[in-house]
Design a protein that fits this description.
By secondary structure, this protein is mainly alpha-helical. Helix content is 64%, strand content 0%.
Length: 175
């Protein structure tokens, strides 16, 4: 659960975005930043609208009392959207290799296990976690669509327009 708490939810995306930018993956860095921001914004909006209380210590064992609302789980949303987007980038950008497999397994396990962790620690009801997986998946799909839209629009080499007044270059031997 540690990466899902503040300040880690601020530091981890900034470090990863800076790393992607440094590798020359500018659109990937921008899209990863959008994924982190959209996860937090949508989660905060839904929490404010629903205002569901967290499990009480008299009902379940609560590891740490938190004062924010419970539905949907912010940890699960952050993991699904941000780490899910990094999973997607590793899948599409890296060649098949043991390193790629290790990265995919790492992100996949983080995403799969965070929900169980949040329930085990008494921070969320199972429905909070399931709702966050669903809402996070929809947000991830939207972020991937945004990435693909921008990648094809802004980062694909475009052919230079041909000026119709210029004659095409002549081949040798033609008169």
């Amino acid at each position: 659960s540690w990466p899902g708490f503040t300040p880690q939810t601020l530091v981890i995306p900034v470090v990863i975005v800076a790393f992607l930018w440094g590798l020359g993956l500018h659109w990937e860095a921008v899209a990863a930043l959008v994924a982190a921001i959209s996860s937090a914004a949508i989660n905060g909006l839904v929490k404010t609208l629903i205002q569901r209380p967290r499990p009480a210590a008299n009902l379940v064992h609560v590891f740490r009392i938190l004062n924010s609302y419970s539905f949907p789980s912010g940890h699960v949303m952050f993991y699904v959207v941000f780490f899910g987007f990094l999973f997607f980038l590793a899948f599409v950008l890296l060649r098949h290799s043991p390193l790629r497999t290790l990265i995919l397994v790492f992100f996949g396990l983080m995403i799969a296990l965070i929900g169980i962790s949040r329930i085990y620690l008494g921070q969320h009801w199972a429905s909070d976690v399931l709702g966050a997986y669903l809402l996070g998946s929809l947000t991830l799909v939207a972020n991937i669509a945004f990435y693909r839209w921008g990648k094809s629009r802004f980062f694909v080499a475009k052919k230079q327009p041909v000026d119709a007044s210029e004659s095409p270059p002549r081949k040798k031997g033609n008169k």
